[in-house]
Design a protein that fits this description.
Chain A has about 325 residues and is of the alpha/beta class. Chain A contains 14 helices and 14 strands. Helix content of chain A is about 40%, strand content about 20%. Chain B is built from eleven helices and eight strands. Classes of the chains: A alpha/beta (about 325), B alpha/beta (about 325).
């Protein structure tokens, strides 16, 4: 049975249920297990719920080693930027071992971190830096946009034998949604068509999925039918669902909170340009953040980021185009 | 072709039998490494190669006291540690030659050797990156309630990396059964220790932390054996981590092909004095447990074993290139 809970509660429920299911699952982090009443400490004890010093490299590396030794640690890394402190351990150790050992070892590790907190957190705590991890071989990356997906992707991440970066969007933390109560798994590499449509394909991740849905609603009033797709995981990336949609709609708009040149949208645009060129009836449009850090000043923060108005404008740009070969077809 | 390196030991001073075992292992490493160097120059061994010639004593004395269930992590200079931990020479050589029959099917190579069956959890190529991994193995062993330990080998260069101190802090905080074995050969890659830090002894770096720390002459094999034995017993008994600093010498450059202009060449005479193999042999002759003709026999046996390993490796095919992306991820889940 589903009931409405918050996005963050859904994530923690996913971890809690997996810890009940499998005693090798550990929860580690700089602010976990603060008191004996903490629901994780109370249920699983301080041996499995461990607070660490502010030592990202040792903390993540230690968890990676425990994973190589058969444990399944979930490391709450707090903010995505803190992963940068420990980059060798995030992108160059646990995720390489399966490959470098010729498939002889696995490192089932989950790194949980929040991202995208655009609420005046300024230059170093607001980054949408998932793009820099999606091309790292051996590392999976999940970007849930709803409470149900957050729970289901977390459970799948914990069960997966590979290192997974689970990035939750800070602006969704207290958003609520229906979440199944018991075991709930969302497969990796399967995009969700969150709103079907026929005129244009709109791909978005995380918080921008909801902005894309608002834009689609606004455009529907003008008679433009928008299909909204959420990839849910960007590694693996479900290109097929996007290609199939573009085959139906002929137009693709990509929304991404990341800086344009480190975005998921650039990768999807390249994939569709190569494999779906014949379906396109307009240039691909990317609605991304500027290639700039996030400023503190509120109006400047808004200016840098994608929003509903920019998405609507992006869709109109795609819809208003008629390519020469379309015109030629029309004449014939 | 596996040497007897996994027997349990219970006394703190090495017996003549143990010392003979250590000598055997050291000759196996020496013969292996010299051959790897030759194969590298002949381009049969591919890639970036770091040899441990001169440091065999530490690898032998430490790994001889471990079990298959104890995890060992090494760094870029890993061959000696792997061999001492029991990896078969043929499959180890095949890995260095990039062959399908290698420990990692030719996909890891010199700096990424892994042999789970022998508890060689692996070598990692980034200086210091292996230290927290060993903490994780130690945590897993502790949580399972076993007396297994994790051992990590690193050089003095890794000690100046922040993760060293982070790891010492975490290991002592959680009393993890991890043994930090520093091979202090005086050079961090190409730079003498004095140019990187004002703290001469690595064991002094960890002074504020509650863990036993010992500095020994790493070329004096019996000394390494005894010091490690004591620290190992503590760790097995649940008394937490320890640091063993072994002052060693790197006879070769940082990597094979290193022009080695940053230090003075070691004189033959000086090396005769320092070489851990020659020292142990002199001690064995003096104490009477080593016959005059034994060293030559041990060396010949080791070189013959390496010959066989090379022949085996040469007969192993290269891995099928079509599998280059097949093992990026495990298909498994629990």
């Amino acid at each position: 049975m589903a009931r409405e809970i918050t996005y963050i509660a859904a994530i923690m429920e996913g971890i809690h249920q997996e810890m009940s299911r499998d005693e090798d699952v550990l929860l580690i982090g700089q602010s976990v297990g603060g008191s004996p009443e903490d629901p994780f400490v109370a249920a699983f004890g301080p041996d499995r719920v461990r607070v660490t010093p502010i030592s990202e490299t040792a903390e993540i590396g230690m968890a990676a080693g425990a994973a190589l030794a058969g444990k399944r640690p979930v490391v709450d890394c707090t903010m995505a930027e803190f992963l940068l402190v420990a980059m060798d351990q995030v992108v160059n150790e646990a995720n390489r071992f399966h490959y470098m050992s010729g498939g002889r070892v696995t490192a089932p590790l989950v790194l949980k971190a929040g991202y995208g907190f655009t609420a005046g957190w300024a230059g170093q705590h607001t980054g949408s830096i998932y793009g820099m991890f999606m091309g790292v071989p051996g590392l999976k990356v999940a970007l849930p946009s709803t409470p149900a997906d957050a729970k289901g992707l977390m459970a799948t991440a914990i069960r997966d034998d590979n290192p997974v970066l689970f990035l939750h969007h800070y602006l969704l933390t207290l958003e609520t949604g229906d979440v199944p109560e018991g075991e709930h798994l969302v497969p990796f590499g399967q995009a969700a068509i969150v709103r079907p449509g026929t005129d244009v394909t709109l791909v978005a991740t995380g918080w921008t999925v909801h902005r894309a849905l608002e834009a689609a609603e606004e455009l529907a009033a003008d008679g433009v039918s928008v299909e909204v797709i959420d990839p849910r995981t960007i590694a693996p990336l479900d290109v097929d669902t996007v290609l199939a949609s573009v085959e139906r709609t002929g137009r693709l708009v990509l929304v991404d909170q990341a800086t344009r040149h480190a975005s998921v949208s650039a990768i999807i645009a390249a994939e569709v340009a190569e494999a779906g060129f014949a379906s396109l009836r307009a240039p691909i449009v990317q609605v991304t953040a500027l290639d700039a850090p996030i400023a503190y000043s509120k109006p400047m923060e808004d200016f840098v980021l994608p929003d509903v108005a920019k998405i609507v404008a992006g869709v109109r740009r795609a819809v208003d185009v008629t390519l020469p070969h379309d015109a030629a077809t029309a004449v014939r | 072709m596996t040497a007897s390196v996994h027997r349990d030991v219970s006394t703190a001073a090495p017996t003549p039998d143990v010392l003979r075992d250590l000598l055997t292992t050291m000759w196996r490493i020496r013969a292996f490494e010299e051959r790897v160097g030759a194969l590298k120059r002949a381009d049969e061994v591919h890639g970036l190669i770091h040899l441990s010639i001169g440091g065999e004593g530490v690898a032998a004395a430490v790994c001889r006291q471990l079990r298959d269930g104890d995890a060992v992590y090494s760094g870029h200079r890993a061959h000696g540690h792997a061999v001492a931990k029991g990896t078969p020479l043929d499959r180890t050589m095949a890995e260095l030659m990039g062959r399908e029959g290698g420990l990692c099917s030719g996909m890891g190579g010199s700096m990424h050797l892994v042999d789970v069956a022998h508890g060689f959890l692996g070598a990692t190529g980034v200086v210091g990156g292996n230290i927290p991994l060993a903490l994780g193995s130690a945590l897993a062993a502790k949580q399972r309630g076993t007396d297994a330990v994790a051992v990590v080998f690193f050089g003095d260069g890794a000690v100046q990396a922040g993760l060293f101190t982070e790891s010492v802090n975490l290991a002592t905080l959680w009393r993890l059964p991890v043994l930090l074995v520093c091979e202090n050969n005086g050079f961090a890659e190409f730079t003498p220790r004095s140019a990187h830090t004002t703290v001469e002894r690595v064991s002094d770096v960890v002074a504020p932390y509650p863990l036993p720390r010992t500095t020994v002459d790493g070329n004096e094999v019996g000394e390494v054996w005894s010091a490690f034995s004591e620290l190992l017993a503590r760790a097995r008994a649940g008394e937490g981590p320890a640091l063993l600093e072994c002052l060693t010498h790197r006879l070769r450059g940082h990597y094979e092909g290193d022009p080695d202009r940053y230090r003075e060449a070691v004189s033959t005479e000086d090396w005769q004095r320092k070489d851990p193999i020659l020292r142990l042999q002199r001690a064995g002759h003096d104490a009477g447990w080593l016959a005059a003709d034994e060293p030559a026999a041990l060396e010949a046996a080791a070189r013959a074993e390496v010959d066989e390993a090379v022949a085996w490796a040469r007969s192993s095919p290269f891995p099928a290139v079509a599998r280059a992306a097949a093992l990026v991820e495990s298909g498994g889940a629990r």
